[in-house]
C-alpha cells in the first residue's frame, strides 16, 4: 500500500510569443490560478489523480481565454473540431477523442473511454459516443474567435496558426502561436495522471490530427507524467511526452530527462513546451517557445512560468 504523499499539480494554457506587457501576464496568471486553487482543493479532499486531471481540464476548457472547449479556434472551413486525451499512470491506460464537435468538454469523452475496449475515437465515433451518453449539443464559438477567423479568411489564411490566448489586447502578440491546455497531477496516494485538450491550430486543413489526442503529446506511467503544448507536428516528430517519461523510467531524474529532451528539440529547431511531474513529486517544465503559460501548486504555494526568460528554458521544483 502506498503511503500518503503531498499532492502536486501543474497546468498549462498553451505556449507562444510574449504576452504583450504586464497586463497580459497578470490576466493570464489570474485565469490559471483560479483553476489551480479548486483543483488542488479536491486533491487535498482525496480526489484521485485522474479525477483531478479531468476537473482541471474541464475548467480550462470552460475558460474562453484558452484554445480548448469554449473559445476553441476555427478550422479553415469555419468549424470547431477539438481533440483531447487522458492517461492514467497507474493503469497506463490512454484514451482520447479526435476532431470532436458540439460538445462542451471533450475531456469527458476521454474519461468515459478509459474503461472502453475502444479507447481512441475519431470524429464520427466521438459524435456517436456523445449521442449515446446523451451529452447536450454545445456551441463553443466565441465572438473573438469568429472575428479572428473572418480576418484570416480575408487574408486568405496566411497565418500558420491562430492565437494562443483569445484577448483583444493580446492580438498583436498572439500572431501564429500555439494553443492547448493540459493538467498533470500527483495525488495523495502517489498516483500520476495527465490530460491534454485543444481546439487545434486554427485555419488548418480539415481532418488534421493534433498531438493532444496522441501519446506523443500526453503520456503517463507510474514514474512520470507529461502534457505538451506547441506545434503539434513538432511534438509528434520528437515523440516528446513518452521520450521524457521513458527516460525517467530508465533511471534519469525528471529534470535531466527534460534537459536532454529539450536540448535535442532545440537542435531540431522545434517549437513547443511541456509540463511534467514524477512519482517523487518533482515538478518540471520546459519550452523552446518564448513563453509557456503554466502554473503549479507544489503543496505549499502557487507559482507560474509566465515571466521566465525568452527562448529555450527548462525549470522545475523538487
UniProtKB/TrEMBL annotation:
Keywords: Autocatalytic cleavage, Hydrolase, Protease. The active site is at residue 180. Substrate binds at residues 208-211, 229-232. The record marks 179-180 as: Cleavage. One of its GO terms (molecular function) is hydrolase activity, acting on carbon-nitrogen (but not peptide) bonds, in linear amides. InterPro entries: Ntn_hydrolases_N, Peptidase_T2. It holds the Pfam family Asparaginase_2. CDD domains: Asparaginase_2_like_3. GO terms for biological process: proteolysis. PANTHER family: L-ASPARAGINASE, N(4)-(BETA-N-ACETYLGLUCOSAMINYL)-L-ASPARAGINASE. This is Isoaspartyl peptidase/L-asparaginase. It comes from Cyanomargarita calcarea GSE-NOS-MK-12-04C. The lineage of its organism: Bacteria, Bacillati, Cyanobacteriota, Cyanophyceae, Nostocales.
